[in-house]
Amino acid sequence: MGDLYALDFDGILCDSCGESSLSAVKAAKVRWPGLFDGVDSKLEDWIVDQMFIIRPVVETGYENLLLVRLLLEMRLPSIRKSSVAEGLTIEGILENWSKLKPVIMEEWDEKREPLVDLFGKVRDEWMEDDLATWIDANRFYPGVADALKFASSKVYIVTTKQGRFAEALLRELAGVTIPSERIYGLGTGPKVEVLKQLQKQSEHQGLTLHFVEDRLATLKNVIKEPELDGWNLYLGKWGYNTQKEREEAAGISRVQLLELSDFSKKLK
Ligand SMILES: [Mg+2]
């Protein structure tokens, strides 16, 4: 009958870590201007480098902003306002982000929504001012653009990114037009709910369902839902996950570890 693929965007189709880290630094400068007073370009480079290592903890883009400030507080005792920054290591962030996040948001008196809006606004402005450099800060993984272009399966994008950004990158960088109704972006609800919606649609009855994601925590959320038992689940090894998470995934029978080269073949 055919296959339906629900694909995560960042870390599966597109390596956007450079772009999201630079956007986060720009947004952090807007949100907390005083914080960057003593910050030179060397320290700023250090922050962007660390962001590549801790990227696996990020579920939604605005968290990049929190990470930028946390990294700054780790390096600069004078600006420290959170109780967790002293003695914190990169390893510590990778291990404990879900516990650290609510603590720093409380201590910095920040709420999710304004940060989401600001992060989107900073990206919009960057795109408007200089679309070429914004696009250049992203790249599609090798083979992915062609796989999407020539896919015979029904493809949906399920992402925590704002849909308009995913659409622009697909169009401008990958040369692929995916209709906006096939893109479930930020604000369309949790991924588990999107998957439930997709499997219920009458035109999808009889299709084999596949969900490809690079975040193990998201796949675990799917496993928790008996209603979603029919989905084949894949952890993309090339994306933003750690060795430890890949080892854990290898022990979960519902989850298949997927190589990039096999992923491109599957869509065809
Ligand atoms: Mg991802």
From TrEMBL:
Q: Name one GO cellular component term.
A: lytic vacuole
Coiled coil ranges (UniProt) are: none
Q: Which GO terms describe its molecular function?
A: SNARE binding
Looking up InterPro entries in the UniProt record yields: HAD-like_sf (IPR036412), HAD_sf (IPR023214)
Q: Please cite one Gene Ontology biological process associated with this protein.
A: SNARE complex assembly
The record's annotation in PANTHER family points to: OS07G0418000 PROTEIN, UV RADIATION RESISTANCE-ASSOCIATED GENE PROTEIN
Q: What is this protein called?
A: Ribosomal RNA small subunit methyltransferase G
